Amino acid sequence: MKDCWHAQVKSVCQDRASRSMGMMSKVVMLGDLYVGKTCLINRFCKNMFDRDYKATIGVDFEIEKFELSGVPYSLQIWDTAGQEKFKCIASAYYRGAQVIITVFDLADIKTLDHTRQWLEEAMKENDPGSCFVFLVGTKRDLLSSAECRKMERDAIKIANEMQAEFWSVSAKTGENVQDLFFRVAALAFEDAILKEVEGVTAPTVIGPGGLISKTMCCITAPSGCV
Ligand SMILES: Nc1nc2c(ncn2[C@@H]2O[C@H](COP(=O)(O)OP(=O)(O)OP(=O)(O)O)[C@@H](O)[C@H]2O)c(=O)[nH]1
């Protein structure tokens, strides 16, 4: 069965690769103003960090291109404004997300409390269970290791409630930023391929993903597949 699943995945990848047919997944970043959403995207997509704050007006997006198992693959990363006055514009872009990243500032506990509300808003526009959810604490560089561990304990509780994967990062130093987005890409890519493989039911939880770089990816079979 596992061999059969691998063969089907391989055939979908080969077919797409031979036809140079790309795949794309939509990622939506949300969270309070000033938590560092734009900086996180800029660190990953442009390897840059800007210490000056420029509020996002409504929404913005970046496309990051990869090649996974020979298949051209892109993440369309939507950066939404945290300011209340732009909420109605930004929420129009929540629909159809494969991945929702709720972002908070590790140095500001109230932004962590607000992540539940942000996720609730995003899930009004998406079907339950249709998205991978990440909870990401930013500005890790501003905290001592002890402060960081304390915040992370609180954040993990909320991540468990949200059924989200928790990551602690810094856009300033770049710590964990690339690993976070590679993990996002691996999960979203596996999910997109699974949906294409006929007769395979997508599992609720997908395994640890594969090793992924901008030029290669190794896909693991879902845990439910024997
Ligand atoms: N020290 C430190 N500062 C950061 C980090 N990430 C962002 N900042 C700073 O935090 C401020 C806000 O960052 P943005 O990325 O603009 O925040 P945002 O969440 O996109 O804000 P809105 O667009 O209003 O929703 C800026 O002054 C950044 O320089 C980080 O990892 N470490």
TrEMBL record:
InterPro entries: P-loop_NTPase, Rab, Small_GTP-bd, Small_GTPase. It is a lipid-anchor. SUPFAM superfamilies: P-loop containing nucleoside triphosphate hydrolases. It catalyses: GTP + H2O = GDP + phosphate + H(+). Coiled coil: none annotated. GO terms for cellular component: Golgi membrane. Keywords: Golgi apparatus, GTP-binding, Hydrolase, Lipoprotein, Magnesium, Membrane, Metal-binding, Nucleotide-binding, Prenylation, Protein transport, Transport. Its cofactor is Mg(2+). GO terms for biological process: protein transport. Its EC number is 3.6.5.2. Its main location: Golgi. One of its GO terms (molecular function) is G protein activity. It is an enzyme of class 3 (hydrolase). It is found in: Golgi apparatus membrane. The small GTPases Rab are key regulators of intracellular membrane trafficking, from the formation of transport vesicles to their fusion with membranes. Rabs cycle between an inactive GDP-bound form and an active GTP-bound form that is able to recruit to membranes different sets of downstream effectors directly responsible for vesicle formation, movement, tethering and fusion. Belongs to the small GTPase superfamily. Rab family. This is Ras-related protein Rab-36. It comes from Scleropages formosus. The lineage of its organism: Eukaryota, Metazoa, Chordata, Craniata, Vertebrata.
